[in-house]
Amino acid sequence: MAPPLPAGRTALTMHSVDNIAFVASQTPEAQEALERLKQRYPHVPPATADVIVALGGDGFMLETLHATINRRPAIYGMNRGTVGFLMNAYREDGLIERLRDASPVRLHPLRMRATTANGATVEALAINEVALLRQSRQAAKLRISVDGKVRLEEMICDGVLVCSSAGSTAYNASAHGPILPIGANVMAVTPISAFRPRRWRGAVLPDTAEVVIEVNETDKRPVSVAADFTEVRDVVRVEVKERRRISLTLLFDPEHNLEERILNEQFSP
């Protein structure tokens, strides 16, 4: 068990804000912001940083999390992209104070283990979702099991995805899946354009569950799977389980924390 924190200290202040690194996407807006912030604040290389300030959009935030997953520094995003759901507002003033006051959110990625038609096995981590999609004009036929028990013998569909709570507002929301509160210790299984069973809308599972998706008629109905940036084609079986041993830390301004954003998404028209 971890020792108690000293009086007056939060979990965040255990992260030093003395060693800050800046990284940016390749857009002109992000690159210009990168140069201005580097001129204004002391910084270190990303490989030695305690906190990384990521400048870009949500896609770049995912890239940064994946690139640092072995070291796992705290990541503070500032929006120089489009949507910026995982990013804080961009402001150059008072950055050190913002980092010190930021609220941490812990995320655990999903581990995907995919087996292909030729017997190869590919493992990857997904922070948002693991999504299976048909590769051809033919609909996919999938069997879904949870913790070793078949729960759906056959689903005819374009695909299915398993998402984390942090990823529930991304592709999952577009597929009309549930938006999951951070800290609820659940994940979602959401069909993509299901034809049969037509009324199945998916499931919310405890984050301890293991989901296994098997592909029927693989020769006639090939299926690919994507775990964030890792894509595998011609899969016959995909296993998904949360990797609790890996903990990623995102930092948010208190007035724009991730829990509040997810709650707002549930009530947005």
Automatic annotation (TrEMBL):
Subcellular location, record wording: Cytoplasm
Originating organism: Rhodospirillum rubrum (strain ATCC 11170 / ATH 1.1.1 / DSM 467 / LMG 4362 / NCIMB 8255 / S1)
Residues at the catalytic site: 58 (proton acceptor)
Keywords linked to the UniProt accession: ATP-binding, Cytoplasm, Kinase, NAD, NADP, Nucleotide-binding, Transferase
Catalytic activity, as annotated: NAD(+) + ATP = ADP + NADP(+) + H(+)
MF-aspect GO terms: ATP binding; metal ion binding; NAD binding; NAD+ kinase activity
One GO cellular component, as annotated: cytoplasm
Residues binding NAD(+): 58-59, 128-129, 158, 166, 169-174
GO biological process: NAD+ metabolic process; NADP+ biosynthetic process
Record gene name: nadK
Record has Cytoplasm as a keyword: yes
InterPro entries for the chain: ATP-NAD_kinase_N, ATP-NAD_kinase_PpnK-typ_C, NAD/diacylglycerol_kinase_sf, NADK
Gene3D superfamilies named among the record's database cross-references: Probable inorganic polyphosphate/atp-NAD kinase, domain 1, Probable inorganic polyphosphate/atp-NAD kinase, domain 2
This protein's name: NAD kinase
Cofactor needs: a divalent metal cation
Assigned protein family: Belongs to the NAD kinase family.
Pfam family, one: NAD_kinase_C
Function summary: Involved in the regulation of the intracellular balance of NAD and NADP, and is a key enzyme in the biosynthesis of NADP. Catalyzes specifically the phosphorylation on 2'-hydroxyl of the adenosine moiety of NAD to yield NADP.
EC numbers: 2.7.1.23
Enzyme class, broadest EC rank: transferase
